[in-house]
Design a protein that fits this description.
This protein has 316 residues and is of the alpha+beta class. It folds into three domains: 2-144, Nucleoside Triphosphate Pyrophosphohydrolase (Alpha-Beta Complex); 148-175; 178-305, Nucleoside Triphosphate Pyrophosphohydrolase, CATH 3.90.79. Helix content is 13%, strand content 32%. It has three helices and 17 strands. It has a six-stranded mixed β-sheet with strand order 3-6-7-4-5-8, with helices on one face. Strands 12, 13, 14, 15, 16 and 17 form a six-stranded mixed β-sheet that branches. Strand 6 and strand 7 form a beta hairpin. The longest helix has 19 residues, at 126-144.
């Protein structure tokens, strides 16, 4: 990976690029805050050239003009931020980056608006969107861990890492990460797509689910697929991963092949599921997610050809 300067809508930006090595695809999620370095301890003073992301609840402040930006070298909320409203995020390049926690009563300056992370997609560079989503996540972590979950005492930041420590009982709490698998399952020249009631109208996506305690990732994939669709899979292969901060998931993507069973959806999980070829795809997720990255990989012909040792009776 390397970092360089680029332009987005006419504005200079810091962008990261991930290259593909000889071993195959190396996926970098659009919400991966790779351009932030977790360097600790944090600076004793906030430098004047610091980067800022301003957070209110689950939204971030978006500067509309002169060009859209969510990570900015300015503080339009300086008159309302208190010393405890600042949260160190890491280094962006060599410059510290902070989240500013905006209070409810703060006035929103002209040419600014608060918006959800999802609504930032295509409005600002992916690198900025990733930092903004990370800021929202870390502000939530700070807010939710102000008191010890074991004894109730007030916690303190750990100077050497991103964590909270209880001065009373010594419990150390780290940001929560909830691993979840997501799988592109192939059957001949078709893939399995499913529809959840939570999806927008007409949209289908891939099978996904959280990893349970005591499971490895492959076990979780097989279990989720069987529970939700009634089929078994084989030839599980790792694809890539990405943070999905809604609120704290780590999506781990795989490809797999149909191995047997009759497609039978669990109505508690899915509305429907079916096999689709490239010419008859339904509405699929936008390019923000690893779900779409997996589907695009298959659409571009990167997947191997159809398996010949598992018959596909629906194609006879």
């Amino acid at each position: 990976m390397f970092t360089t300067s680029s332009f987005f809508l006419g504005c200079p930006q810091i962008c990261t690029y991930t290259t593909q090595g000889e071993d195959g695809l190396e996926h970098t999620g659009k919400l991966s805050a790779d351009s932030l370095l977790a360097v600790f301890p944090e600076p004793e003073k906030v430098p004047q050239d610091a980067w800022w992301v301003f957070v209110h609840g689950e939204e971030v402040a978006l500067r509309i003009r002169p060009c859209p930006a969510a990570v900015v070298p300015e503080d339009p909320f300086r008159d309302t931020l208190m010393p405890g409203d600042r949260l160190y995020l890491g280094l962006r390049g060599a410059v510290p980056c902070y989240a500013g926690c905006v209070r409810d009563q703060a006035a929103v300056p002209d040419d600014w608006q608060f918006t959800r992370i999802r609504d930032l997609y295509l409005r600002i560079p992916d690198e900025e969107m990733a930092i903004a989503s990370f800021a929202v996540r870390m502000v939530a972590f700070d807010r939710n861990t102000r008191f010890c979950g074991r004894c109730g005492a007030k916690t303190l930041p750990v100077p050497a890492e991103r964590a909270k420590e209880c001065p009373s009982c010594g419990l150390v709490t780290y940001p929560r990460i909830s691993p979840a698998i997501i799988a592109l399952i192939r059957r001949g020249d078709r893939i399995l797509l499913a529809r959840s009631s939570r999806f927008p109208s007409g949209m289908f996506g891939l099978i996904a689910g959280f990893v349970e305690p005591g499971e490895n990732l492959e076990h979780a994939l097989r279990r989720e697929v069987m529970e939700e669709t009634g089929i078994s899979v084989r030839n599980i292969r790792y694809f890539g991963s990405e943070p999905w901060p809604f609120p704290d998931s780590l999506m781990i993507g795989f490809t797999a092949e149909y191995a047997g069973g009759e497609l039978t959806v669990d109505p508690r999980e899915l509305e429907s599921a079916s096999w689709f070829d490239r010419e008859h795809l339904p509405r699929i997720p936008e390019k923000l997610s690893i779900s779409r990255a997996l589907i695009d990989w298959w659409l571009e012909g990167s997947a191997d050809g159809p398996s010949r040792d598992v018959p596909d009776p629906d194609r006879r």
